[in-house]
Amino acid sequence: METKKEEKQPKSLEIVTHKLPKNEEELYQYIETNTKGVIPPTPRWSVQEGHSSPLDFISESYFEEVTDCIVLANRHGVKTMSFSILAFLDLTHKNLGIATIGAIQPQARRSYEYTQKFCRLFPNYIEKSLMSTTTTKGGGNLEIVVGSIRGVNCLTGDTTIETLDEKRKIRELVGKKGFYLHSFDLKSKRFTISKVKRVWKAGKALVYKVIFDKGVLFATRDHLVLLKDGNYRAVGDLKVGDRVEVLYRTIERDKRERSKYYWNLKVAAKEHKREHRWVMEEFLGRKLQEGEVVHHKVNTLNNNPDCLEIMSREEHSSQTNIGNKNFWFGKKRPEQSKKLKQYLRDLSPEEMEKRIAPMRDSYKNMSPSEKKKFAEESRKRVLQDWKTEDRRQKQTENWKNQFTSAKEQGMNNHTVISVKIYGEEDVYDIETEKNQNFVANGIVVHNSLTQRRLTLTK
């Protein structure tokens, strides 16, 4: 009776990486043990005096005996394979940020094919792997792109950047740093804030025009855009119907103080917040406690952390119109102010106290259970008001209008309509500290490349 032979599975990283290589010989054995049968053996001997072998290049770069080097070799001289091995070793062992730039599309494809093979050998370290980016569970990041270094991850000067106070053109931000931008955290699937390290003009480059059902983006071919499924895709690889991650940010009028306006933000799916409260929570790294109010020092539309401060409700009330008697008796509401002043003038101090005292003392003397009952009765009165036909009809119309407005804005949609070559333009880059992305023209795009090792192959 014949028995099926079990296919030998390649050893995973869990088994073989308990001891990382410490010298060239151990590195060679490590590579051969883990990649045997998957890629050709790595040449370790030079073919001519004065030349170096591929293993010499991998070893000296991996152990950082050299910091900068240029590799020259004939066609089919295993340059792409050597770079791929080195990049993956650095990615999994050192958790670096790496960019591999292929001079032509087929070259980048070959590099990605090697990367995919390594990912299957080392599943325990890999978070996800796409051609646009491969990330490890330790935070390493490998990007494989095509084109010149200058043309990687750039946007045109008219691109609108969402800052925490207003929308600015990227060219207006050149030379600035230390301010905060909106950023998307892929792990929590929520928006957060990220500090800008630098903004600069990169020169001229060929850009593509991406038209969405709402909006447009001008960027270089390899600039990465975040899709709704959490993966990045290069602008040049976007397809009609692709849905991208966007920031929904609107200005709303305060319901109590009609002269004030605030930014409202969709932080995550089914989660909306006033932006100034969200910014302070992200800046402090904690939720706001009960009774804490975030106060704008100057402008209610400026949500930079240095323009906000936390105070108690009592302190905040004393500094705002709601708790300021000059608001009620001043010039902002002349008609109401006039009537209220006249009514209060006609009341003697005794009558005023007689009217106020019962309400004040009644609630003050209530037990906790009575206060709870009072709140429930107040709520019932509100619900009773809701049961009237006029009230229901009016609120239903408001909801319909809000829903229509959301649809017109492309909420939860933002799909690609077309991608075309636009022409050469001045292009600009932004580098952020956290999450490696920011919002441009309302769309989440990848941070400009920041890596410790850059490989250009041809």
The average pLDDT score comes to 77
Helix content: 25-40%
Q: Gap between N and C termini, in Å?
A: 53 Å
**Which outline best applies?**
elongated
How many β-strands, per DSSP? 21
The major pleated sheet works out as: 5 strands, mixed
- Radius of gyration, whole Å: 31 Å
Descriptive account of the structure:
This protein is α+β, with helices and mostly antiparallel strands and 458 residues long. Among the domains are: 134 residues, no CATH class; 127 residues, Endonuclease - Pi-scei, Chain A, domain 1 (Beta Complex). Helices cover 32% and strands 27% of the residues. The chain is built from twelve helices and 21 strands. The strands form seven sheets. The protein has a five-stranded mixed sheet, with helices on one face. It is elongated, with a radius of gyration of 31 Å. The two termini are 53 Å apart. The N terminus and C terminus are likely disordered.
Task: Write a brief caption for the model.
By secondary structure, the protein is of the alpha+beta class.
